[in-house]
Design brief:
Oligomer: single chain
Shape: elongated
Largest sheet: 5 strands, antiparallel
Number of helices: 4
Structural class: alpha+beta
Number of strands: 5
Radius of gyration: 20 Å
């Protein structure tokens, strides 16, 4: 069985296998003759640069919405942390937590949906932390929202929407109608 990261990479690869052929088909049917291939190449790159972070934001928002709708609050323990990026971003991190569900199942090393600041209280392994988990998917769990997480998420969405808008402009200029 593939790891969760490898499964995610496979889902992305399946989605991207239609991306380039769709742009090539649009280039073929476009009435524009002046550099439409270049325009769609730029648009395709912008679509990836803006689309991937927007998908990340959408998945986080969906997970938080599900936790708000059906989450159950429990107390767990911090078992470690994962940095936002495998390399680089060391100021914000996802806590990994272990907890017991209401029906008695022990869930171990679940990463939080919400990040915390690396100097926050309650980040060290063994610290008790309030969290909520989804009873339908106990591996979806999170610490409470923080202002910093909300601001970073909004900033990421705003920055990612600029190249995504560029993608829409490039594709819109290439449409045959």
């Amino acid at each position: 069985m593939l790891s969760p990261r490898a499964q995610e990479a496979m889902r992305i690869a399946r989605a991207l296998r239609w991306y380039a052929p769709a742009l090539a088909l649009l280039a073929l049917v476009s009435p524009r003759e002046d550099g439409v291939g270049f325009l769609l190449g730029v648009g395709g790159a912008l679509g990836l640069a803006g689309g991937v972070p927007l998908v990340w934001v959408a998945r986080r928002v969906r997970a938080l919405w599900l936790l708000r709708e059906r989450g159950i609050g429990v107390v767990g323990r911090v078992t470690g942390h994962v940095h936002i990026w495998d390399k680089g971003g060391h100021l914000w991190e996802f806590s990994t937590m272990s907890f017991t569900t209401l029906d008695g199942r022990r869930v171990r090393d679940v990463p939080s949906v919400v990040t915390i600041w690396c100097l926050s209280r309650g980040r060290s392994p063994g610290a008790e932390v309030a969290l909520s988990y989804d009873p339908e998917c106990p591996t979806r769990a999170s610490r409470p929202l923080t202002v910093g997480f909300v601001l970073r998420t909004l900033l990421l969405a705003a920055v990612a929407s600029v190249p995504a808008y560029g993608f829409l402009v490039c594709v819109g200029m290439s449409l045959p109608f």
